[in-house]
Write a structure and sequence with these properties.
This protein is of the alpha+beta class. The chain has 14 helices and 12 strands. 37% of the residues are buried.
Length: 403
């Protein structure tokens, strides 16, 4: 207890120096906590933009379809697969789709794009098509309804109720086929790739347009636990349907995004290392100044029989108190900033990575348990490690020279 008392008193012999050092360390921790929250928020934004907007957490389709989107590579009997998915406890929701490249034309202009035939009710659970509607109405199941992106609508000069002609290839004969639709709604995903190049029609209309009857190109899934979609080893289907079916998780669908997310996870460690260097310089400077001011006292301590380990203990205790105080202050500042931006968000504009647009909106930071436990402990430990050299220096002071 005597060493604790000595260390605490020595820490406040020069209050200004102690507070400045404390401010340096606590600022480092606050930055670390906030950066970790921002990185986790960015990871959630990127994953959500991929899996919650349109693409889902995984796809089931015939092998080879993903590479070229060949309309003739479609599931002939998707109902068998749907029965198995309904019985799978890991699956939260799924949606059956047909998908084809084609021409989207109006009386004024025409563009190339993707035509999605979707089940309106199923899509509510796996994508945000309904939430993205900004004009008109969502699909109701009536024949020849069509949803179009706001950017494509501007290019084609159409609005709700206007006519659109879709041209695509028949899935069986590969001959061109056309049908007339009316715009029932206009959507805005905030994603240029979707808003400029995609239209949605009802599943039955899509099947009729492509001559597929009851077939489907793609079954999109959402899981109860998103981590399930990252597991490459688990078996989703026993593949006894007689078709060459493949299951693909979102990480495999977007390998470059997965690699970037892995890189994001190392950013906190990199920031921590940089802060360690800055904190080390501040702590070493502060402790050495304190030791030089007390050279005479350390000489007296050694002269009256104080062991080197006891001198080291006193200096390390000073560093421990400094680290604890700094950690508490930094944790409060960092957590308050994290909490504020987790509610209000940071405007980040429109981000494009690997050809994918990650909407133009706000980045919301994430609060996590380790920010309140491991990051403060990390900073306290770094402060103690940094103090080892000054402590060893103090323990080697020769009493006769010091006096």
């Amino acid at each position: 207890m005597l060493y604790f008392e000595l260390a605490w008193r020595n820490l406040f012999r020069n209050t200004r120096r102690t507070l400045l050092t404390c401010l340096l360390i606590s600022s480092g921790l606050a930055v670390l906590v906030f950066a970790d929250g921002g990185i986790r928020g960015m990871e959630k934004l990127m994953i959500g933009s991929l899996t919650k907007t349109l693409h889902g957490e995984g796809h089931i389709n015939l092998k080879g379809f993903r590479q070229n989107l060949d309309v003739d590579l479609y599931l002939k009997n998707p109902s068998t697969i749907m029965d198995k998915l309904n019985a799978d406890e890991r699956v939260a929701a799924f949606s059956v789709r047909v998908l084809s490249g084609g021409m989207i034309g109006s009386p004024y202009n025409s563009v190339g794009g993707l035509i999605y035939g979707v089940n309106a009710e199923q899509e509510k659970k796996v994508s945000k098509i309904k939430d993205a509607i900004v004009a008109g109405d969502y699909l109701t199941g009536k024949k020849r309804e069509l949803l179009i992106g706001n950017k494509m609508a501007a290019l084609l000069e159409v609005g709700s109720g206007d006519r659109i002609v879709l041209t695509a290839a028949d899935a069986n004969s590969n001959e061109l086929t056309q049908d007339l639709f009316r715009v029932s709604g206009i959507f805005d995903f905030g994603n240029r790739e979707i808003d400029e190049g995609v239209v949605f029609i009802n599943l039955t209309d899509g099947q009729a347009l492509l001559g597929m009857k009851e077939g489907a190109h793609q079954i999109v899934l959402q899981f109860k636990d998103e981590a399930t979609s990252r597991d490459y080893d688990f078996t989703l289907l026993d593949n006894k349907t007689g078709e060459d079916i493949e299951w693909t998780g979102w990480l495999e669908l977007n390998p470059s995004i997965g690699a970037y997310l892995d890189l994001l996870n190392t950013d906190t460690a990199m920031i921590g290392f940089i802060l360690f260097i800055l904190i080390s310089l501040g702590v070493i400077n502060s402790l050495f100044m304190s030791i030089y001011e007390r050279t005479y006292e350390f000489g007296v301590l050694s002269a009256i029989g104080t062991s080197r380990w006891e001198v080291i203990s006193i200096v390390l205790l000073e560093a421990l108190f400094l680290g604890i105080m700094s950690a508490l202050i930094g944790l409060v500042i960092g957590s308050v900033a994290n909490y504020y931006f987790s509610l209000n968000g940071l405007s980040i504009g429109e981000i494009e990575f690997s050809g994918i647009m990650f909407g133009n909106g706000n980045l919301y930071t994430e609060l996590a348990t380790h920010q309140f436990i491991f990051l403060p402990l990390y900073v306290i430990l770094l402060t103690l490690i940094t103090a080892i050299y000054p402590a060893l220096f103090a323990s080697r002071i020769i009493p006769t020279e010091a006096l």
